[in-house]
TrEMBL record:
Recorded GO CC terms: Golgi apparatus
Region (Disordered): 150-186
One Gene Ontology MF term: transferase activity
Record's protein name: N-acetylglucosamine-1-phosphate transferase subunit gamma
């Protein structure tokens, strides 16, 4: 991240670039001055080791941020194993509402989920469509805000939606970008 408009230095303002990297402890690892009044700093911290840390962490309430800080520190201090770290992080994401608890996922799958794919009336179908469109717009906005590219899925015919349903092997499914936390990986 760049910090501009610092103190006056000759004919311009001082500038600093701080690079956050994964490390076992919080420490300033490297400082240089690549050009006059421009500084480059490398700061190591366990807080950025997780691939989702810079997207999720700032959006968490302070109490959950403190919990995550402690989990990262415990891992760095080797007080917990990587398996324990993953379990604690999953619990934290569940408490934040970013992941469903395993019981919720299983009951939603067995019970057909909160919403069925069959609608009683055209009005209820239109209402669900409007809500889903609104959610898609919100999610696109979040992706754009974080600079994450997204592509529009290929159009499918109505018959493809109404055709027979075949199970999908989620383990073999290939996704673009960061797959995030999936299945029982934690």
């Amino acid at each position: 991240m760049w910090m501009r408009d610092g103190d006056s230095c000759r004919s311009r303002s001082r500038q600093s670039k701080v690079e956050l990297t994964c490390g076992k402890s919080n420490r300033l690892a490297h400082v240089s001055e690549p050009s006059t009044c421009v500084y480059a700093l490398t700061f190591e911290t366990p807080l950025v080791c997780h691939p989702h840390s810079l997207l999720v962490y700032p959006a968490l309430p302070a109490a959950l941020q403190q919990r995550w800080d402690q989990v990262e520190q415990d891992l760095a201090d080797e007080l917990i194993t990587s398996q324990g770290y993953e379990k604690l992080l999953r619990a934290l994401f569940e408490d934040a509402g970013y992941l469903k608890a395993p019981e919720e996922s299983e009951s939603a799958q067995q019970g057909g989920g909160a919403q069925s794919l069959v609608f009683e009336t055209l009005e209820s179908c239109n209402k669900a469509h409007k809500e889903l469109s609104k959610e898609i717009k919100r999610l696109k906005s979040v992706l754009t805000q974080h600079g994450i590219p997204y592509t529009k899925p290929a159009e499918t015919s109505t018959s493809a939606h109404l055709g027979s349903k075949t199970p999908i092997d989620r383990a073999a499914e290939q996704l673009r970008g960061d797959p995030g936390l999936r299945g029982n990986t934690l």
